[in-house]
Design goal:
The chain is mostly helical. It contains six helices and no strands. The longest helix has about 60 residues.
């Protein structure tokens, strides 16, 4: 019996043994890497954290998109309702104005028109009279004051509101005494 016959019967050759040892080393290395990965809690925590962050980002994006869509729908619905309400108010106002006009006697309408014309004429006369009698320097100062007031409306309105509030508080305290 020679070496070849023994090899075929069950005894491995040195080359086969080397291959088995190499295979076993590879498997053992993979097993050690897997065990090391399972034992590395810090790395696992980082992986889970990254996964949770990614899921949260995806969910946030979905919720943000849904909220934007719902907001757009609600705005559109509100605009439609406002348009309908505005139209209804306009229509009812026109009906009320027409009803008042229809029920008002013609004589009253004529007298109202005449009174309005007289008021306009009187206002125009008062304006002309005031312009004629007011000295030019005073007109210039008044014009500058009006221009400044137009340019600074907000502070003037705020000051006026404060003055009115002060006067109302003072008046109510005077009644309580």
């Amino acid at each position: 019996m020679n070496d070849e016959s023994q090899n075929k019967m069950g005894t491995p050759t040195p080359e086969e043994l080397r291959e088995r040892v190499e295979r076993t080393r590879d498997e053992l290395g993979q097993t050690v890497e897997a065990l090391a990965a399972k034992a590395d809690i810090k790395a696992q925590a980082k992986e889970k954290t990254a996964a949770v962050k990614e899921q949260a980002a995806v969910r946030t994006a979905v919720v943000r998109d849904q909220a934007a869509e719902k907001t757009a729908v609600i705005r559109e619905q509100a605009a439609e309702k406002a348009a309908v309400a505005s139209g209804q108010i306009r229509e009812k106002t026109e009906q009320a104005a027409q009803l008042v006009k229809d029920r008002t006697p013609d004589a009253v309408l004529e007298k109202t028109a005449q009174a309005a014309a007289q008021v306009r004429e009187s206002a125009a006369q008062a304006r002309r009279y005031a312009a004629e009698k007011t000295p030019d320097p005073l007109l210039e100062k008044a014009d500058r004051a009006a221009t400044a007031a137009r340019a600074n409306r907000t502070p003037l309105i705020a000051g006026g509101a404060l003055l009115v509030a002060f006067l109302l508080i003072r008046r109510s305290r005077g009644r309580n005494r």
